[in-house]
Structures are given as C-alpha cells and as structure tokens.
Write a structure and sequence with these properties.
It contains six helices and nine strands; from the N terminus they run H-H-E-E-H-E-H-E-H-E-E-H-E-E-E. The chain is α/β, with parallel strands linked by helices.
Length: 223
C-alpha cells in the first residue's frame, strides 16, 4: 500500500463519528442533499485514501496532497460532483483521474460499473490494491482526455482535473441524457460545470468556482 495510511481512529465508532461530522458540517450544510451520496460518504473511510503523514487531516475541509503532484479533493467538492452526476445505481460511469481512489470507491457504491482512468502508473497500481475488494471497478492507465471508447457509451463521466475545454472524445462517449462533471478554465482559475448530452446538442450548467490540478493529455494541458 506504499505510503498510504492504514490509520484508524481510537475505535471504529470514533472513525464513523468523524465521517458523520464531515458529512453534516461540510457537505450537507452546504446544500448537498442526495441521500445516496451522503450515505456513501458516511460509509467510505476517507482516512484510508490519504498518505500516512496526512491521516489525521483526512476529514478536514480542504484538499490534501497524495504524491505525484496530485491531490485528494476537498470533501464538499467531491460530494457536489457526485450529486451533480445524478446517479440512481444502474449507470456505467467513467472517472478521469483515479488519484487516491477515494472518489472511485464512492462511485462504486453509487453506480453499477465504474471505469477509472489514471495517467500516473504508480497511483493506478496503489489504487488497484486499495480497491481490490470493489468488484465493479476497473482502473486503466491511459490518457484520460481520450476516454475509453471501447467501454462506452457512459451514462456519466466525472473528470477530477481541470481542462481548458471539455475533451470532445468524452462528449462523444456520453450516452443520450448522460451527464459530465468537470472543472474548466485556466490552470489557476476554474469553474466546475455539468454538461448534459441531448442528441447532438449539449447544455452546460455552472456549479461553483474551484481549483483542481491540470488535466494533462492530448485534449488537455501539456505536461
């Protein structure tokens, strides 16, 4: 498991209490209402998805570094993104940017099948071990801006890095009525958006200002 944490609070009850407080004070209080999202975030042990030296900060209201220049997103932003996907449990979902695997684990609770693309092989290997028990998850090392055309179409796509525009291959791989959630903008200033596909047309809704690591690839930023 590399440098990632096997930290536990003093008891399973204490760890559960930390998650309950995180959901109540950081996520639900800011307007995330989807009960399936809130329940998943209460169940998945966030402390197991951060490096050992950050374990006691796992439930803090901020993003945390996980190595390789990547981060685990702020809990509220994760909740907001998942709610915006509007998952019922029957969907096939594509995640671009596995990172620590935290959002991947949450998606596994919320969707029928999850394909996650990570460009950093070391992070992908860590996550395969960490998520081995999740039978509905597949992690692929590839350029996420190209998606996974042989696995699509996807009912929902979530991108956990910011790009200058929505990569056209991802739009092409969205199913009819599919939702894509992604931060868009420059490397320094971004807006989290939801794109919905209606035939050949798409509609876009702004969700909130945000700041993510850059999306690297053929349809993103250069390294």
């Amino acid at each position: 498991m590399g440098l990632f944490s096997q930290w536990r609070s003093s008891s399973p009850r204490d760890a559960r209490a930390l998650r309950e407080r995180m959901v109540r004070d950081q996520i639900e209080a800011r307007g995330v209402r989807d009960p399936r999202v809130l329940d998943a975030m209460r169940e998945v042990p966030r402390e197991q998805f951060v490096p050992l030296d950050r374990a006691k900060q796992a439930h803090d209201d901020c993003a945390l570094p996980i190595g390789e220049g990547q981060t685990i997103s702020q809990p509220y932003i994760v909740g907001l993104m998942l709610e915006a996907l509007a998952l019922s449990g029957e969907e096939i979902v594509l995640e671009i940017g596995t990172g620590s695997g935290y959002e991947t684990a949450l998606l596994s609770h919320l969707a029928a099948r999850v394909f996650s693309v990570e460009r950093v092989a070391a992070l992908a290997d860590e996550c395969r071990a960490r998520l081995a028990e999740f039978r509905n998850v597949e992690i692929v090392v590839a350029d996420g801006t190209l998606g996974l055309p042989d696995r699509g179409p996807f009912d929902a796509i979530v991108v956990t890095a910011a790009g200058p525009s929505v990569p056209q291959p991802l739009v092409d791989q969205l199913a009819e009525g599919g939702r894509l959630v992604m931060p868009l903008g420059s490397r320094d200033e971004q807006m989290l958006v939801r794109l919905t596909r209606h035939g050949a047309e798409t509609t876009t809704t702004d969700l909130c200002a945000c700041r993510f690591v850059p999306l690297i690839g053929a349809h993103g930023f250069s390294a």
